[in-house]
């Protein structure tokens, strides 16, 4: 019986401070966004990419309203899984959209891991073979897995330490880059063929990936001290901090590299931007910061996403097998999360990983706002116009992004559609299965017995 009792998730309520929570959020946001997305966004929208970061910040600001309102009403370590359940109940929309969020977070880990590999290889003149980037990425995920096994305090301590170093370092890169630039006049005319509205919206959608780490904070819900106040505050602080940092660094890169150079070095554009103004020492410094940023981001992401899957498992919304492993469900979900991340890191390149992540995330985000609008508005005391605007902005960004990918990489759209169909069918089969019905009945009987 004791072994069975140990199968539950173990949440450590009140173990995360406001500062620690902000560091977890900014850890994921800054890790993903600024180091790898800058070049990809420039490739899509030309020299307008710093403005695409700002447009993404506007969209995320509207998006965050729904999350703050729900987390104030229902703080939960299950975060988005629990929010969807509050809106849609024990049904397919909850399980489907929660799994989209889960996969988008696993994708974010792989994105960070490959970014880590791309920057690290700049110390060795690049990765001609194409093998070292995924190998380094896989190694980083395994290291983050070990630290996560050591518990909350270890994760918070390491993430906070890395967070302070990383934010300081990125601010130095941005300030020095702007200070030493020949000119701050970014050439906004050089948008070339890509300077159309669809491409700007597509780049804005990618920019949203740079901010979506704020949802990591909602997944830490009940583990945050005074969550009804601090979850919302942590989200707002994280977004504002990232707007300042991204804008600064975006202009530093745009001032020091030509558009062609930014696109050519898109997987490591910050290191490339450091070279003309600071020489090789600047490159080493930038790479060191990038390595810390991506490492901290993976650490925080694995921490949050494994908790979300554990909550979905406890809610009987996803199938679960122990595969012979001992310990709690949370430990198992940590293993599944890491294994999935390893596969993606090994076999997908950066731009395709980012594309899958943004499609899954925006569809889930729309479902959250619709849930607030349709089912939870009175319960969470939300005004209706903000989620309406958030849905419209999400649809605009998603439409622009899909249009760009239809023209440049339709394969990745096919992968996204097939994956969503498989998730939907698999979940429908599971939710209507006799095994799940039995598990739910057993839980009810157990609750009645107590």
UniProtKB/TrEMBL annotation:
It is found in: Cell membrane. This is APC family permease. It is a multi-pass membrane protein. InterPro entries: AA/rel_permease1 (IPR002293), APC_superfamily (IPR050367). The lineage of its organism: Bacteria, Pseudomonadati, Pseudomonadota, Gammaproteobacteria, Pseudomonadales. The chain crosses the membrane at residues 21-42, 48-68, 92-111, 131-151, 158-181, 196-214, 235-263, 283-310, 331-348, 354-373, 385-404, 410-431. One of its GO terms (molecular function) is transmembrane transporter activity. Gene3D superfamilies: Amino acid/polyamine transporter I. Keywords: Cell membrane, Membrane, Transmembrane, Transmembrane helix. GO terms for cellular component: plasma membrane. It comes from Halopseudomonas laoshanensis. Pfam families: AA_permease_2. The keyword Transmembrane helix applies.
């Amino acid at each position: 019986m004791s072994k069975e009792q140990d199968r539950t998730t173990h949440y450590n309520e009140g173990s995360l401070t406001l500062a620690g929570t902000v560091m977890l959020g900014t850890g994921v946001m800054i890790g993903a966004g600024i180091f790898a997305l800058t070049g990809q966004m420039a490739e899509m929208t030309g020299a307008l990419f710093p403005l695409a970061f700002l447009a993404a910040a506007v969209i995320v600001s509207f998006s965050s309203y729904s999350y703050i309102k729900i987390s104030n009403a229902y703080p939960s370590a299950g975060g988005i899984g629990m929010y969807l359940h509050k809106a849609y109940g024990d049904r397919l929309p909850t399980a489907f959209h929660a799994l989209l969020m889960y996969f988008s977070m696993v994708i974010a880990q792989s994105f960070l891991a490959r970014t880590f590999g791309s920057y690290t290889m700049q110390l060795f003149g690049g990765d001609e073979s194409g093998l070292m980037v995924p190998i380094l990425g896989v190694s980083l995920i395994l290291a983050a897995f070990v630290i996560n096994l050591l518990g909350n305090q270890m994760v918070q301590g390491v993430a906070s330490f890395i967070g302070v170093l990383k934010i300081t370092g990125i601010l130095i890169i941005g300030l020095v880059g702007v200070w030493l630039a020949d000119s701050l006049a970014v050439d906004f005319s050089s948008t070339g063929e890509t300077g159309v509205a669809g491409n700007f919206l597509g780049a804005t959608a990618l920019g949203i990936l740079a901010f979506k780490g704020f949802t990591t904070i909602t997944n830490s819900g009940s583990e945050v001290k005074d969550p009804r106040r601090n979850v919302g505050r942590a989200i707002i602080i994280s977004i504002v901090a990232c707007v300042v940092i991204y804008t600064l660094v975006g202009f530093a890169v745009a001032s020091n590299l030509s558009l062609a150079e930014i696109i050519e070095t898109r997987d490591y554009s910050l290191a490339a931007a450091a070279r003309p103004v600071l020489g090789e020492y600047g490159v080493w410094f930038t790479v060191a910061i990038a390595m810390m940023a991506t490492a901290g981001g993976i650490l925080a992401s694995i921490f949050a996403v494994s908790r979300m899957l554990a909550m979905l498992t406890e809610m009987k919304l996803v199938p679960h097998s122990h595969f012979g492993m001992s310990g709690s469900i949370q430990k198992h979900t940590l293993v599944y999360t890491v294994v999935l991340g390893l596969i993606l890191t090994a076999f997908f390149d950066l731009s395709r990983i980012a594309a899958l992540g943004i499609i899954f995330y925006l569809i889930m985000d729309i479902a959250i706002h619709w849930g607030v609008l349709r089912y939870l508005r009175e319960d969470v005391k939300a005004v209706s116009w903000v989620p309406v605007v958030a849905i419209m902005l999400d649809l605009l960004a998603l439409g622009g992004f899909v249009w760009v990918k239809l023209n440049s990489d339709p394969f990745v759209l096919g992968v996204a559609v097939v994956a969503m169909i498989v998730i939907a069918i698999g979940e429908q089969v599971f939710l209507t299965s006799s095994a799940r019905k039995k598990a739910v009945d057993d839980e009810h009987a157990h609750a009645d017995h107590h």
